[in-house]
Amino acid sequence: MNKVILMGRLARDPELRSTPNGVSVCTFALAVSRRFKNANGEYDADFINCVAWRQTAEFISKNFAKGRMLGVVGSLQTRSYDKDGQKRYVTEVSVDEAYFAGDRGPAADEARPAAAPANNGGAAFGASDGFIPMPAEDDLPF
């Protein structure tokens, strides 16, 4: 079984490209914190290269930017190529699923263009992204 589940922050903006056949591919690196503190009492992070294809690639490039928290599910893959006569090896996560994780930080506002208010049949949602604002905890009827 080859299954990888990661949650981390984008180390750089996702890079969306297309293959010669028009297939979308998105590459990015996730900074994933380790579980234990180092000798200085801080958490180290591993920077894990990831690649997503087709609709998943488009979803990531449209909704995420550097610093934004992202959850991914995929598989670990290795490949090799020749560069300047030397064989290079790459290990990366091939992303099958991507999820929003954490809060909406400033990076999210930069990644997503401002949406026009949707016409929801007269319903007042209070937010242009379609989410209904919840009342404060002490205002709930239960």
Architecture overview:
This protein is mainly β and 142 residues long. The chain has one domain (4-107): Nucleic acid-binding proteins (OB fold (Dihydrolipoamide Acetyltransferase, E2P)), CATH 2.40.50. Helices cover 11% and strands 46% of the residues. It has two helices and six strands, in the order ββββαββα. A five-stranded mixed beta barrel has the order 1-3-4-6-5. The model is unreliable at 111-128 (pLDDT under 50).
How is the topology of this model organized?
Layout: E1 4-10, E2 15-18, E3 24-37, E4 43-53, H1 54-63, E5 69-83, E6 86-100, H2 106-111
Parallel strand pairs: 4-6
Antiparallel strand pairs: 1-3, 1-5, 2-3, 3-4, 5-6
Keywords:
142 residues, mainly beta, OB fold (Dihydrolipoamide Acetyltransferase, E2P), five-stranded mixed beta barrel, 2 helices
CATH topology: OB fold (Dihydrolipoamide Acetyltransferase, E2P)
- Report the average pLDDT across residues: 82
Order of helices and strands: EEEEHEEH
Question: Structural class, judged by helices and strands?
Answer: mainly beta
Strand order of the largest sheet: 1-3-4-6-5
Number of domains: 1
The number of helical elements comes to 2
Task: Please report the first level of CATH classification, the CATH class.
Answer: Mainly Beta
Gap between N and C termini: 45 Å
Q: What is the share of helical residues? A: 10-25%
Largest sheet: 5 strands, mixed, barrel
CATH-defined superfamily: Nucleic acid-binding proteins
